[in-house]
Each structure stands twice: as structure tokens, then as C-alpha cells.
Design brief:
Strand content: under 5%
Biased composition (Low complexity): 203-217
Helix content: 55-70%
Number of domains: 2
Radius of gyration: 51 Å
Order of helices and strands: HHEEHEEHHHHH
Strand order of the largest sheet: 2-1-3-4
Largest sheet: 4 strands, antiparallel
Distance between the termini: 26 Å
Region (Disordered): 195-234, 327-350
Biased composition (Acidic residues): 327-338
Domain RING-type: 72-118
Keywords: Metal-binding, Zinc, Zinc-finger
Shape: rod-shaped
Amino acid sequence: MPPTSARRAAVEARQRVSAILLTRPARMPRASGGAAAAASTTAAAAAAVPAPVPVHVPAPASLSQPDLTATCSVCLQELNVKRVTTLRPCRHHFHESCVATWLETREYRREQTCPLCRAYVQKLVDDSGRTTMPGFPYGATGQPTYLRLGDANLMQLHELLRDTESRLARCVELLRDESKGDEYKLDLQAEKTQMEARRDTLQRLQSQQRQSRAALSPVPQVARTRSAPEPAAGEVRTTAMQLELMERRRLEALQAHHQHLFLQVMQQRAQSEAMLQQLLEMQLFQQRQQQQAHQQQQLLLQQHEAARAAAVNRIVFDLDDSFDMDDSFDTDEDDVEDTVPRRSARIAAR
């Protein structure tokens, strides 16, 4: 039998028992003579006076015991029919099964309020003084709301995952740019090799020029009177100096450009490594959060199953008790005379 059907059967059984107890008049012990007449007169007068209609009065904060003559605001029956529980902090009294059904049919925990004053219910106190927490809010579907949300709870994680993927794509582009920097480095090295070859050629030409000058030094003064070689030598020297200066400036510019590109590549690499480290830490943090959420969900489900099992056991016990009481009413009339007052006192004590 499902828990809802069992609870409904228990409530109906208790209603039948309470109706039988309230409708059957209690028999007084037999008396003789005037005592019997006085007893019959008293019983007739009591039957003639109509019973007052019980009205629920909210219990003040100073009272710790419920008024059993009042009624439950949920099922509109007297409090002495079922077990009574007290809501804290408002201290209103209801039947334990009625207020449990009322709280469990809420959709969210913040909606678990008192049926009378709408105060937020923090805990429940039964007639024996034991304190319990309100049950899980199932709503109309009979399942906790957080189990029906599905992927809606993971929306933030999905957005964070998309952001992480975009950052990873950016890192891949940076790595591709780093490979382009290697290509620039190869071009610079090839250009440097060409400049070094030109420098070697220039040095060889300068050495040949010095050798030619040394070979022409012992020439007589007549040969020096010529004006053609001197301007040619001066032009060669000036051209060589200009070429050397240009090559030096070009080499310096290439070296500066190479250093600048190398620094840019190193900075991009450091940034990409830092970004990858942050992304890895974020992924680890997400995994830990998901594991913690899964563990909390498993713990809540276990607590919920334990609470439902305890509720089912309590309902079965109440059913057994009610069925025993029904069986006791089928006995002979003398046994009923002795059993009804005792069971009425037991129910009132509950």
C-alpha cells in the first residue's frame, strides 16, 4: 500500500474510533434505589444540555501543553482524536499527520508556514516533548523541487564552460602566433647571414686595397703627378665607409627588431601559460563543486528515505492500534463497559 493510501486509511480508522467513543454513552455502575434514580436523572440532564462547539484558540507563548478541547484548523476535528504537535515559534497546535501533510505539500521550504498565522515553521514539538524538523517540500508532484529542475541548476556551469572553451581557443591562436614568431626568427637569421657575407666581402676588398696601396708606394714622383688615381682611391674609400656605416646601421636595426619580437613572443607565451593555469584551476573548482553537490544530494535523498520509512512505520503502528481497538469493540457488552473508559483515557493522554 502506498504511504498516501496508508495515511488516509489511518485517518479514517481514527475518525471511526473517535465517532464510536463519542456517540456511546458511558455506563455508570449499578446502584439500587434512590442512587439509581439520581444517576438516571443526572444522565438525562446531561444529555438534554447540548455540548458546546469546540473552537480553536491559539495557544499563548506561556503554555506548553495543548488544549485538547480545541480543534485542528486543518481537518476541523478535536485535538484529542490524534497525536498533537506544536509549531515553533508560533506555538499553534495541530494534528501531527495533518500538519505533516500541510508542510509536505508546499513546493519550497520558504512556503512551509503555519496554517493559522503564516509564520515560518522552524521546528515541530510533539506531545512527548521531542523536537523534529519539518519534512521535505514535495509540492503537488510528490517529488522535491530540486530533483525536477534538471539542467536548470547547471546553467551557470554551462556558461562558465563556454567561457572556458572560448579562452582555450584564444590560447590556441596565441600558440599559432608564436609559431609565426619562429618564422620571423628564421628570416632574421637568414638576413643576418647575408649581412655577415657582405661584411666579409667588404673586409676582403679593403685588404686588397691596402695591398694595392702598399704595392704602389715605391713608384717615383712622376707617377704621383697623375691626378686620376687619387680621386679614384678617395671615392673608393668614401664608398666603402658609407657601405660599412649602412651595413652597421642595418644590423643594429635588425638586432633591435629581433629583440622586440622575441620579447613580444615571450610575453604572449607567459600570458597564455597563466591563462591555461587559471582555466585548469577553474575546471578543478567546478569538479569539486559538482562532487560536493552530488554528495549533498545523495545525503538529502538518504535522509528523505529514512524519514519516509519512519513515517510509514509510524502509520503502520497507528493502523495496528486502531484495528486492535475496532476488534475490542466487537466483544461482549461487559468487556466494552470496562474497555471504553480505559481507551478513552489513553487517547486523551496522547
